[in-house]
Amino acid sequence: xxxxxxxxxxxxxxxxxxxxxxxxxxxxxxxxxxxxxxxxxxxxxxxxxxxxxxxxxxxxxxxxxxxxxxxxxxxxxxxxxxxxxxxxxxxxxxxxxxxxxxxxxxxxxxxxxxxxxxxxxxxxxxxxxxxxxxxxxxxxxxxxxxxxxxxxxxxxxxxxxxxxxxxxxxxxxxxxxxxxxxxxxxxxxxxxxxxxxxxxxxxxxxxxxxxxxxxxxxxxxxxxxxxxxxxxxxxxxxxxxxxxxxxxxxxxxxxxxxxxxxxxxxxxxxxxxxxxxxxxxxxxxxxxxxxxxxxxxxxxxxxxxxxxxxxxxxxxxxxxxxxxxxxxxxxxxxxxxxxxxxxxxxxxxxxxxxxxxxxxxxxxxxxxxxxxxxxxxxxxxxxxxxxxxxxxxxxxxxxxxxxxxxxxxxxxxxxxxxxxxxxxxxxxxxxxxxxxxxxxxxxxxxxxxxxxxxxxxxxxxxxxxxxxxxxxxxxxxxxxxxxxxxxxxxxxxxxxxxxxxxxxxxxxxxx
Length: 511
Fold this sequence. Notes:
The chain is mostly helical. Helices cover about 75% and strands about 0% of the residues. Helix 5 (about 85-110) packs antiparallel against helix 22, helix 6 (about 110-130) runs antiparallel to helix 10 and helix 16 runs antiparallel to helix 21.
């Protein structure tokens, strides 16, 4: 098959000798680290709700408020088209993509735990600045600090979870990041629904409560163990073995520990991990993990729905309260999808989830576009039944995304990179992801205004392209030890030619 040519985990090096059992120590460490996702999720959820609140708009964006009031009795694609307003959302992601390179240095030299703690402090400062903002510049400065926090957190947390997890359950463990992200979105939507009724400072409460997950993450980080991979990378071999024994629940870790040391020795030979990322032998990791999947994750259009769900629903004729209520429903759908993905991704594999859910997403985008083309126009409110139908279709889209491109967009890249360039590779992943997040956030409301229902057809077409990309170029990585993922590309129908050209060897595919 097109994405085939991959081996079973048991045939790779010493993988069949790895032993583990699930311990409370391991579970607590992963749950605390995964809280980093709640920072990302809370901001995703809170931004769209706050930008639709009248009190917030009156204070910082009076022109948008006046335009909104002028269209209270009708619907309009262009109601919220304001580049400064969208900069409130996108500035965070521009800051995050810059900070991720500093996060790479901290993650590699000081460990994954250090980056998690730096991210929590920066996010806390940003939340305080936003809650106390009295001018647009103060608001944007707070967003920059929030972005730095997300840059550090998104750099470190997926790596931490993938490195701590045994190969056979790595998919489920890594998706704790997506689950906490979804829970953060849901909590933010619920808070927005309540604070929208608190005048005139409810929006300040929504933004300020971001300090809560940041505080939990910092305090939890004080007690987090460093990953065995990172400790070996830092030369702390005795400590690394002790941690590995505790997280695996057994003293029989010789095989896995030897593989970690071999990977670390290879890593020390690499003086410039960013330059190494561009070598031909690492071309699959660069194209799939660092560039393709992070960009495609944003081009699904999902984050636009998460950013601006209340705004979208208000633009389509829903009242303010109804719009926030509808965004709560999408948040619940996202959490359900994350649980589905956690339960089955290590059984059915990454490719199956990408391709099946991608097909659904294409269908739902086309349905939304056709419905709006037929039923929606400037000054023409949507019938109540059509509005409910659109909410249901959007929820189905969210369910499809939430078990595929949402969690797998973080899981798969975190699996692909060998230790010697893992922190550098994850930096490029986060930078690329945040770049496209920022661009989509900045452009979406203008695109909605000018393309109208056509924007949903654009996203549907992009999902077609990215599904083909997965089908042809991504091998299945389920249950393969993270230090041995590179062998999959030596056996892949397409990548083996490039890998062979660079390192002069060729491994026959396992039948």
